[in-house]
Design a protein that fits this description.
Layout lengths: L2 E7 L3 H10 L8 E7 L4 E7 L2 H7 L10 E7 L14 E2 L5 E9 L2 H10 L11 H13 L4 H11 L2 E9 L6 E6 L4 E4 L3 E5 L11 E4 L5 E4 L4 E4 L5 E2 L4 E2 L15 H7 L1 H9 L3 E2 L2 E2 L8 H6 L2 E6 L1 H18 L3 E5 H4 L10 E7 L5 H12 L3 E6 L5 H5 L2 E4 L12 H20 L5 H22 L2 H11 L4 E6 L2 H17 L2 E6 L16 E6 L5 H12 L4 E7 L11 E5 L7 H19 L18
Parallel strand pairs: 18-19, 18-20, 20-21, 21-22, 23-24, 23-25, 25-26, 26-27
Antiparallel strand pairs: 1-4, 1-10, 2-3, 2-4, 5-6, 6-7, 7-8, 8-12, 9-10, 9-11, 11-15, 12-13, 13-14, 16-17
Helix pairs in contact: 4-5, 7-13, 7-14, 9-13, 9-16, 13-14, 14-18, 15-18, 16-18
The structure holds 5-amino-5-deoxy-1-O-phosphono-D-mannitol.
Amino acid sequence: MCGIVGYVGREQAAPILLDGLSKLEYRGYDSAGMAVYDGQHINIQKTMGRLKVLSELTHDGATMPGCVGIGHTRWATHGEPSDVNAHPHYNEDQSIAVVHNGIIENYGDLKTKLEARGYHFLSATDTEVIAHLLDYYYKKCQYNALASISKVVSRVEGSYALGIIFVDQPEYVYSVRKDSPLIVGHGQGGNLIASDVPAVLKYTRDVYFIENDEVAMLSQDNIQFYNLDGEILEKESKHIDWDIHAAEKGGYEHFMLKEIYEQPKTVRDTITPRVSNGEIVIEELGMTDEEIRALKKIHIVACGSAYHTGVTSKYVFEGMARIPVEVDLASEFRYRNPILEEGTLVIVISQSGETADSLAALRLAKSRGVKTLGIVNVVGSSIAREADKVMYTWAGPEISVATTKAYSCQLVAQYLLAMKFAHVRRQITDTELASYLVDLEKLPNQIERLLSNKEKIQKFANRYSGAENVFFIGRGIDYAISLEGSLKLKEISYIHSEAYAAGELKHGTISLIEEGTLVVAVVTQEELYAKTISNIVEVRSRGAVVFSVTNDNNQAMESNADYITYIPRTNKYFTNSLAIIPLQLFGYYVSVCRGLDVDKPRNLAKSVTVE
Ligand code: M6R
């Protein structure tokens, strides 16, 4: 989704804006632009396409002199990707410039009213109404920027993080947010706003996380925060202790490959602090043993890959801890009036902590008075701040749009919770817990082993990179793995792919199987081997080529698949953590082979901050 950056300070703004925007590229975008005050006017340059086009257009920012500016990468919502729809947007006389991340839901209404007052619109965006509305209220409020921003905010419905500059207040950048991420960086000799921390890390590690309806006013040497009544707010900055290099490629061809290879470490980092002397200690959960025993139900709510980890966890929580679990897509949960009774725990899972639907689902759960827990990667993000409790996954910054390491960390965070709940509820004995822990702590090394064996997958990916349709099948946890394997392939290779519960194929989808169709069969659940193999036989007899991911020494597969990749043996609940590795590599190498933009696939955004 869109990224915003703003700078005011001693340096030239444009190169800093370009650099900041480059750190937000991972969010996904189709056009980019900047507005810089040159001492007399606000100049805007904006263009379709990648940031390098904007860099070329402005000679790396050199043609836009000035020390105050705002920048934007746009992921089109209202209006096609085009130069004119790219941000920033001006008001009528070009004395105000605005960048926006989010969606103004009542923009149609506002536009009609503004047009009736004589305002002209150049673009098809919802954002342009903000520029004109600001113009209207700025004049009405006797050129008081804070008052006019409050007025605008009171009129718009939807989500926004805004960066604003005024030609007659050239020493300030203003910003305000509601439901779209926004941070302020406190630098030396200059201050910044941005949609995410990596954009400011080169200049500062001291960052303020802005809450809904807070307005930030930045000048070269000062940052002031206000509420919408214009009262000053005291806020504390947070020191970011992760390194800028964590957000760089470090010699890998793509972020996705780097992140795949980081998994042994990040999975270990997520497990280790929560295991002590043979016990699972999740202090941040803040639940007593009595409260854990009193749990009647768990709802897991998330989107995309995070949702897929929830599908796995349903099997793990129910199998291990015998607690009923419902798993929902956040976009469904929020509108289905779910029954949330006393004794329910709602777990919201999100890498970014900013996914609009997941955040709305969390708020719904909170409004119904049930306990909420966020499993979140980005420290200080909205879901992390708003959930009653937060359990962080220690994946570090994930840049590639296709999640890998955050997914793996979300899985192990949920295994830890399930083991804790199972033990406290006496569904597993001390001995069983000890044995699960041994298996859990082996996972990082086992992932490493799988990664050291990538050539076979690479060759297979080269061979099938021209496939048009791919089907992923499995039963139980293997079905959950299939969901993620299929998403990994389709999102970055643009090959049509579907995941099916293996037993469900014959109820319709098997009609799509023809000579040469690739079927990826995930077969890690021993008690289901025979059942899944019978489905494999069905598709092979219709011409499918079967690639199976299965456990080491599963001889039953040898005569039933055309290609096999083996994963090390582990507890039946943890197989997803291993089986997903070859499937991530498969998706990655197919995308590379097809010459696609692996880290920034078309139409996708890393952080989906609009619904
Ligand atoms: O930031 P979140 O974990 O809330 O994002 C949810 C999905 O958008 C995300 O998992 C998406 O499906 C992945 N980027 C796909 O690889």
